[in-house]
Design brief:
By secondary structure, this protein is an all-alpha fold. The protein has helices at residues 2-5, 9-33, 41-62, 67-95, 103-106, 115-124, 142-166; strands at 136-137, 140-141. The chain crosses the membrane at residues 12-33, 69-92, 132-158. This is Disulfide bond formation protein B. It is a multi-pass membrane protein.
């Protein structure tokens, strides 16, 4: 870790973004492949920004000789983490019935369908519902935890970045 401390702060924070999003994505994959919880469509939506944040964080870390470029990549990573937090909040709201989610994964059947259309809809329906909580800790679903932890990570990274800007 001593070598990482010699890097410019944007590169250090890029490493934090890489590891933070990597841990979050790793947790999701653990629940999927080890615990057997199949992800819904909205779960997949939350993974893509984590992947983008990991790539941007790695790029910020690798751009240590160009602190401005590292800062640009770090801003992209922070934005991606904030986006996954927002998606997680939306998903948690769907799970707790605060608002309606996308019809493709919330299990609602459209009205006014002919018997043939209904059959086609039901046989083409996704089996993993976005509006069902499959696991929770302290009454908070996985989507809720993604929203909370990603928000904390994004705010922490943005705070670190603001220290960099104010020290110039």
């Amino acid at each position: 870790m001593a070598a990482a401390q010699r890097l410019p702060l944007p590169s250090q924070l890029g490493l934090v973004a890489l590891l933070g999003s990597g841990i979050m994505l790793g947790g999701a994959l653990f629940f999927q492949y080890v615990m057997g919880f199949a992800p819904c469509e909205m779960c997949h939506w939350q993974r893509w920004p984590h992947i983008a944040a990991m790539i941007a964080g790695l790029a910020a870390f690798a751009s240590s000789s160009r602190p401005r470029l590292a800062t640009t990549f770090l801003v992209i990573a922070i934005a991606a983490i904030a986006i996954t937090s927002a998606i997680g909040l939306f998903h948690a709201g769907v799970e707790y019935r605060w608002w309606q989610g996308p019809q493709s994964c919330t299990g609602t059947v459209p009205t006014g369908l002919s018997p043939e259309e209904l059959k086609k809809y039901l046989f083409g329906a996704k089996m993993v519902r976005c509006d069902a909580v499959v696991w929770s800790l302290l009454g908070i679903s996985m989507a809720g935890w993604n929203a909370i932890l990603s928000a904390i990570l994004a705010v922490g990274l943005a705070s670190g970045l603001s220290r960099t800007a104010s020290s110039r």
